[in-house]
Design brief:
alpha+beta; six-stranded antiparallel β-sheet
Length: 268
């Protein structure tokens, strides 16, 4: 504010991608088109964007009134093209326009825990512990992978894995109770299983065999991971062995297909 003329100056600022920027661009273009054909034109133009609609209102006194619907369409198309170029959105023919979600990259070069993967990418890992069971009622595949005889029990640990509070994966781990007795006493919401294996039981992890398969999620899994209709899951199945060759755990993990990508470095 100037102390001499008492003039008050104001300024408004909004973040990148705010609808106000799109509305201002449309209004400025309407004004420019009017002045281009009539330097004495008088233009009062307000633009509103809400609920999937753009409303242009106001009053124009000019020798020629521009094609306002065409201005709106061209401005929106240019804005969407720029957003697509900068990686904020993606467009699919006959499907629509969607916000592009940055995917977490699971590099298949070494065995890492979910917590280690997320922290390496600057994300904060967390887990929602859904259930813990101690049972001998195990699927035949699990018994075979863990080398169990009839009657042997395992801990079945079901968790929803999150990064920065967003659901990323649904995980069911089957852990040998012979190798990790009393494991349920060490589990909590934010506990890393790898921490328990290595720091509580002092186990030497060896190698894991991983398979990946794209699958269609059921309604419950779709809801749990917050997936849009048609988005698949990447199902990872892994059997981890200790360095002495004993199988430690078998795990199935359904990763959100739009939030995760698996990559591997190969040499020849």
């Amino acid at each position: 504010m100037s102390m001499n003329d008492k003039t008050i100056l104001t300024a408004e600022s909004v973040t990148a991608g705010h609808p106000d920027k799109l509305c201002d661009t449309i209004a400025d273009t309407v004004l420019d088109c009017c002045l281009e054909h009539d330097p004495n034109a008088r233009v009062a133009c307000e633009v509103l964007a809400t609920a999937g609609k753009i409303v242009v209102a106001g009053e124009i006194t000019a020798l020629a009134v521009p094609d306002i619907p065409s201005i709106v369409r061209d401005t929106v198309r240019r804005a969407f093209s720029r957003l697509e170029e900068e990686g904020y959105i993606k467009r699919k023919v006959a499907a629509g326009t969607f916000v592009r979600i940055e995917k977490a990259d699971y590099g298949l070069s070494r065995m890492e825990s979910f917590s280690e993967q997320m922290r390496r990418r600057g994300l904060e890992p967390s887990s929602e512990l859904l259930s813990i069971q101690f049972t001998a009622d195990l699927p035949a595949l699990v018994r075979r992978e863990l080398g169990f005889s009839r009657g042997e029990r395992a801990y079945v640990i079901t968790r929803l894995r999150k990064a920065d509070g967003r659901p990323m994966a649904y995980e069911v781990a089957y852990v040998s109770s012979e190798i990790c007795p009393g494991m349920h006493t060490h589990l909590g919401e934010g506990t890393s299983l790898y921490h328990i294996y290595e720091d509580v039981y002092h186990l030497q992890l060896g190698n894991g065999r991983i398979t990946l398969e794209a699958e269609t999620p059921g309604p419950q899994l779709q809801k749990m991971l917050g997936l849009r209709p048609g988005v698949p899951v990447l199902t990872m199945r892994c059997t981890m062995h200790l360095q002495d060759g004993r199988p430690l755990y078998y795990v199935t993990c359904d990763y959100s297909g739009e939030k995760y990508v698996f990559s591997v470095n190969l040499t020849r």
